[in-house]
């Protein structure tokens, strides 16, 4: 197993996610909220975050995959909306593990517009601000991180390490 150095601890993640949950609770009072998790990386965040949100909401999932294999460069982005619930007229909050180039969230949001939601916003655990290739920025984020390849808390390298309870940087 490769050596992994901790960047953000389990405790730091837990308090940041709780804080994000309180913010969303305040901002979405009296809204018809749908949380849309982006598979696969968001699943750990989504399950923790939704339990910190005290306004009633629906949960849906969309899938984005850009094959990487044993590299850290993303390939072609594929989006699967087969599991998308009815979002017409609803407040959609897209949740993902990380906002890197921003292409995944931007492309999914563009496709979701066709279903006529009331509004689409995004929430991510991590934001690699220096890497952005789009104009949009995440509406909510927990941590800004440097341009390093990270794993854990849902983030993978070649399909593995999603189970780590902390965010770590892989030694190359
Ligand atoms: P974006 O489209 O460039 O914003 O990339 C978003 C997707 O790329 C995320 O949902 C992750 O699956 C993946 N990704 C980007 N950076 C990392 C990283 O440092 N570790 C693991 N996955 C990453
Ligand atoms: Mg992902």
Short description:
This protein is α/β, with parallel strands linked by helices and 172 residues long. 22% of the residues lie in helices and 32% in strands.
Question: What are its keywords?
Answer:
172 residues; alpha/beta; Rossmann fold; 6-stranded mixed beta sheet; globular; binds inosinic acid; binds magnesium ion
Topology:
Elements (H helix, E strand, L loop, with lengths): L3 E5 L1 H18 L5 E7 L3 H8 L6 E10 L10 E4 L10 E9 L3 H11 L5 E9 L12 E5 L5 E2 L15 E4 L2
Parallel strand pairs: 2-3, 2-5, 5-6, 6-7
Antiparallel strand pairs: 1-9, 3-4, 8-9
Helix pairs in contact: 1-2
Bound molecules: inosinic acid and magnesium ion.
Inosinic acid binds next to strand 5, helix 3 and strand 8.
Walkthrough of the structure:
With 172 residues, the protein is α/β, with parallel strands linked by helices. The protein has a single domain, classed as Rossmann fold. The chain is built from 3 helices and 9 strands, in the order E-H-E-H-E-E-E-H-E-E-E-E. The chain has helices at residues 10-27, 43-50, 103-113, and strands at 4-8, 33-39, 57-66, 77-80, 91-99, 119-127, 140-144, 150-151, 167-170. The strands form 2 sheets. A 6-stranded mixed β-sheet has the order 4-3-2-5-6-7, sandwiched between helices. Helix 1 packs across helix 2. It starts with a strand and ends with a strand. Bound molecules: inosinic acid and magnesium ion (MG). Magnesium ion (MG) binds next to loops.
């Amino acid at each position: 197993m490769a050596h992994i150095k901790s960047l953000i601890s389990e405790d730091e993640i837990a308090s940041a996610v709780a804080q994000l949950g309180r913010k969303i609770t305040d901002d979405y009072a009296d809204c018809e909220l749908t949380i849309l998790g982006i598979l696969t990386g968001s699943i750990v965040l989504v399950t923790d975050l939704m339990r910190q949100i005290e306004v009633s909401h629906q949960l849906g999932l969309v899938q984005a995959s850009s094959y990487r294999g044993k590299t850290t460069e993303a390939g072609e982005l594929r989006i699967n909306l087969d599991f998308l619930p009815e979002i017409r007229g609803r407040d959609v909050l897209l949740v993902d593990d990380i906002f890197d180039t921003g292409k995944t969230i931007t492309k999914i949001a563009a496709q979701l517009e066709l279903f006529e939601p009331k509004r689409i916003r995004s929430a991510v655990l991590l934001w690699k601000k220096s890497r952005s290739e789009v104009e949009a920025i995440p509406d909510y984020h927990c941590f800004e991180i440097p341009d390093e390849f990270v794993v854990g808390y849902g983030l993978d390298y070649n399909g593995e390490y999603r189970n780590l309870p902390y965010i770590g940087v892989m030694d190359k």
